[in-house]
Amino acid sequence: MTGEDDFVVTLDFTAAQHAAEGVRELLLRLRKDFDLAPFEYCRKVRIAPLEIPYSHPEITLGTWETGELAVLASYLHEQMHWYVNWYSHIHADEWGGILTDLRRRYPQVPARGPEGAPDEYSTYLHLVVNWLEIEVTSRFFDREQVIAHVGALPYYRWIYRTVIDDWQPLGALYAARGMVPVLPATAMSAEDLTLAGRAEEAP
Question: Is residue 201 included in any domain, yes or no?
């Protein structure tokens, strides 16, 4: 009769390791193919299998997105969080104005997935970040491809639909408040980048 001492459990992270290496190599290749420096407000990237991508304190990417466009859009999405953080602290009044204008334009927004972000504020925030993601990613891939990509994502669905449908008025709002055109990371000071690295936007 087999005893408990014969029972063995092993951990195999080979597939996760290969997936993470694949995303890393793809990101490095994209940086060689495209001049991403103007949009790299954060220069540290962490790749974590099974984790949801997020922006701070360093950019974290997952491994479920593997194509060039998907990885680039995810990467630039998180970089746009850094840009928005910088803007919100440098232009606090204008940032407050953007949020007020968005709340006036969209008085009711989804506050959970798959349509919205985890809470109401985050949904309004992503009306900015997702617009910027499409704007910047479209400098490297055909805009219609970018729109098709984000339109097929299983999250932020209402947010992406809204920024695509209301592209012109939202762009006019962000331009009027000085958020666009996007200030390149290469034109920012060390102090600017420190502000971009703050954990939260200005209140």
Answer: no
Q: How far apart are the first and last CA of the chain?
A: 66
Domain that holds residue 125: 4-196
Alpha-helix residue ranges (DSSP H) falling in the chain:
14-33, 68-90, 92-105, 120-137, 143-151, 157-165, 167-176, 190-196
Alpha-carbon distance 108 to 162, whole Å? 13
pLDDT for 203 equals: 86
Count of structural domains, the chain: 1
Q: Could you tell me if residue 203 is inside a domain?
A: no
How far apart, in whole angstroms, are the C-alpha atoms of residue 54 and residue 77?
9
Q: What pLDDT, on the 0 to 100 scale, is given for residue 45?
A: 98
* Amino acid residing at 57: P
Cis status of the peptide bond prior to 114, with omega within 30 of 0: yes
pLDDT for residue 65 is more than 70? yes
